[in-house]
Specification:
The chain contains 16 helices and no strands. The chain is mostly helical. It has one domain.
């Protein structure tokens, strides 16, 4: 039986907000000494940035699976579901990625990619939209094929996704980020399993078991993170990289631990419903803030630039979100949404 879409839940939005913070921090710091704050590999911010790469995008995919309405009854339902996801994911890919490409070209005087490639291959953080669209279309198709047995078929899909992850499935040409779809698949399917089988509600009725699972997961994750901070050897970072078996264990344990913990933060839960706009536009504000501050003040400490960039990457898109929603055309093109959208209230709160 189809499951009704869940309300905004404070602990789920807290996870989404945390994922936003990690994503923005990633682009503020940069993933190499040539990007972001241009820090050396042995700088503490660069070390933490590399370590957290294991769990950043899996958290987004976990929530994407948890909120996904995946039961498809017929071909008409399949077409409607695909059209909605195409509007939601691909329209922003077309327009926002083009804006990003234009900004990079203007600021740096050129771009490493021909323009047409940004829509066919992974480009910056927009690869997540491509990979997620492929995954959701696959899930919709499998739901239609499996019918009422999909609630059990999803476990088979999850097992297959784990196997392909461990095998490090790659393609010579990563067209439309298909290889990265394999990377995200276990986490999206884990969220979907939790949704279909109402694990959130069931765990809430068993607080001791829920807490025990969360503590076990963090007992796996925290020592791994601590060792990598205390002993930042390249081979150790590679061993726990995001597309390695050990990285998979850390990412799954982090997702499961946060899900079972049901931690609520008012700040993160406020950020969570704005996560899509933050995801799409944060780089405009992080890069813009760094460039503006350094041009006005000259060399500035990374300990000043980091919090400024992080704040700008969160608050800038939240303010931009309100401006985008003023027009039906910008709402559709930049967010894939009809106009007059407001963030749904958290569970237990009145709608705005």
């Amino acid at each position: 039986m189809p499951v009704s879409p869940p309300r905004r839940l404070a602990h789920i939005e807290t996870i989404r907000g945390l994922a936003c913070i990690l994503l923005v921090a990633y682009h503020v710091v940069g993933n190499s000494p040539e990007k972001g704050l241009r820090l050396p590999d042995d700088h503490v911010l660069a070390i933490l940035n590399g370590i957290l790469d294991t769990v950043r995008m899996p958290l987004f995919s976990l929530i994407s699976g948890f909120v996904l309405q995946a039961f498809i009854r017929d071909l008409g339902g399949l077409r409607e579901a695909v059209e909605k996801k195409a509007r939601r994911l691909l329209l922003p890919l077309i327009f926002v990625a083009a804006l990003h490409y234009a900004m990079q070209t203007a600021v740096y005087g050129g771009n490493a990619y021909p323009f047409w490639m940004i829509y066919l291959y992974p480009y910056e953080h927009f690869w997540f939209l491509q990979a997620t669209f492929l995954l959701m279309c696959f899930v919709f198709a499998m739901s239609l094929i499996a019918g009422s047995d999909f609630r059990y078929t999803v476990f088979v899909l999850f097992g297959a996704a784990l196997a392909l992850f461990v095998m490090d499935a790659q393609f010579g040409h990563d067209i439309f980020s298909v290889s990265r779809a394999f990377y995200l698949a276990p986490f999206l399917l884990l969220g979907l399993i939790a949704r279909i089988h109402r694990l959130d509600e069931r765990l809430n009725e068993m607080p001791r078991a829920r807490l025990a699972i969360a503590l076990f997961c963090f007992a796996v994750v925290l020592p791994v993170l601590a060792v990598q901070v205390a002993w930042p050897e390249p081979w150790l970072r590679e061993a726990f990289g995001r597309q390695t078996p050990l990285g998979l264990i850390v990412a799954l344990a982090t997702c499961a631990g946060l899900f079972c913990l049901r931690w609520e933060s008012r700040l993160l839960a406020w950020i969570g419903p704005r996560s899509y706009t933050i995801f799409l536009f944060h780089v405009f504000f992080t890069a813009g803030t760094r460039i503006a501050v350094t041009r006005l003040l000259g060399p500035v400490s990374e300990w000043v630039l980091f919090p400024l960039g992080l704040a700008a990457g969160i608050l800038g898109p939240i303010l931009l979100d309100r401006l985008i929603l003023l027009s039906p055309w910008t709402s559709l093109a930049l967010l894939g949404l009809p106009p007059r959208r407001t963030a749904p209230a958290l569970a237990g709160q009145p709608s705005r």
